[in-house]
Amino acid sequence: VRTQTQVAVSPDGTAWVLLNASPDLRQQLLQHPEFAPSDGSRSTPVSAIILTSADVDCVMGLLHLREFQPLRIYATSSVLRVLTEENTLFRTLDRSMPRAQWDVLPLDKEVGVFEQAVSGETVKLQCRAVSLGGEFPDYASAHLRSGLPKEEAVIGLELVQGQQRLFFAPSVPGDAATWKCRTAESQAALLDGTFWTDNELIDFRGNGKTAREIGHLPLAGANGLLEQLRHESSRVRRLLIHINNTNPILDEESPASCAVRQAGWEVTYDGMEFEL
Amino acid sequence: VRTQTQVAVSPDGTAWVLLNASPDLRQQLLQHPEFAPSDGSRSTPVSAIILTSADVDCVMGLLHLREFQPLRIYATSSVLRVLTEENTLFRTLDRSMPRAQWDVLPLDKEVGVFEQAVSGETVKLQCRAVSLGGEFPDYASAHLRSGLPKEEAVIGLELVQGQQRLFFAPSVPGDAATWKCRTAESQAALLDGTFWTDNELIDFRGNGKTAREIGHLPLAGANGLLEQLRHESSRVRRLLIHINNTNPILDEESPASCAVRQAGWEVTYDGMEFEL
Predict the structure, then answer these.
(1) Cβ separation A95–B138 shorter than 8 A
(2) Of A45, A217, B66, B170, which is least packed with CB atoms within 10 Å of its CB?
(3) pLDDT, tens digit, for every residue of A205-229?
(4) E-assigned strands of chain A?
(5) Does B100 touch chain A (CB under 8 A)?
(6) Does the structure's ipTM exceed the value 0.85?
(7) Which pLDDT score, from 0 to 100, does residue B251 have?
(8) Which chain B residues contact residue A89 at CB under 8 A?
(9) B263 at the A interface (CB within 8 A)?
């Protein structure tokens, strides 16, 4: 059984920046000793968390971190409002000393999310939020949603460290035209592999919504993710994340898995590690 | 590493009633095949969840269940208000078909939480909420908290099936005088084993609050749980749950562990099962 999607990047090999906070985060941190508190205290090498949306799958793990410190959380202004204005549960994060810091991630602007002197050199990690369109989760009140700019609902993250770039977009709600150039400029792109076909959930359950209706561009089919990114540079390492358990690419013997790999994509797995 | 406290009871050997919903619930359900969906769908043998407080450790796991169905959630009226009036995240539970049902558990009254015909006989599980005193969690707004009756903040559960009784109280905020008779009437009592001493967290971290200040009667010391329940019937199986990682009883070689066992208590562990 796979755990839910969680990605962590380390700019210096010691500190970690989490990309989203999955519902399984506690288990995932415990399974990897590099995240253990260094000195028996509650301080962990997790220095920041960057959220790409307010979806439960992206934010629920924050509640696992309520006894970690110090905690710095980045998200768009709108996502921060959905979390903190309508969900008192997150106030448990403000109880630690020092208290968690909630920071606005503006769109289309590089922001420093990590800076540390390592053997005389300054290691910096910058992050740029790229709007991917999409909707705010429907748990947020209609009143609040109606006042929020949709561009801030779902973002991709361009992480920049020196010459290295990583693009992270676990949910791709629609057309890739506006942001696919970002993947071409990166060494690696971690992209939405939730569904193979648009009708996948309907075929599986007998009813429900299409992949596109719930904010995920399917991989296959006309105007699917594979087709939309076909002409991007093949020197980019392209990795599929956030793979739903209905997606046939999880079966290595499937034609879907074969098609994905022939198109030059990789299917990620629990515990996968790589260096840029 | 232990997972966080989670107890499930099965009145008929097939369906399960969860007592609270721990942050680790998804992992815990996946580790035990008896909770697997029966027919490839999302319906699981979990028929109800009963909450003893609005603490994050008791309620966070509800968010793991948002794709399970049908879901029936019992808690005091005040706990339901803390969850649903100030936390839109829980609306994700109302999205399933049929949607989750939130039911009020009144104090001091037996309520049916499960009823099923099993080979010609009706199997019923009743639950009585017993006030344990205590406070609402401080993540809830001061405004809301000021209007809620404190008796509904933290409860114990007396589960009754025919002649069998189980008492469940993972958080015991204070004096046991008013409810300890309940443990004497039960076959088994699962009780708050969070801390050994009142100063345990302060001794460990160098600062902080006492066990009593954060809603847990310590096991040892004057007027501790062991002393308060010393005169209760020894034919009751007494099990300690919700044990913090600072509690010396986790070390079987410790004098604390020895004292607990000599007093006739059991220390629970991950995956422990027993029958009444």
Answers:
(1) yes
(2) A45
(3) 888 899 999 999 999 999 999 999 8
(4) 7-9, 16-19, 46-50, 72-75, 101-104, 110-118, 121-131, 155-161, 164-169, 188-192, 237-241, 265-267
(5) no
(6) yes
(7) 94
(8) 56, 60, 87, 89, 139
(9) no
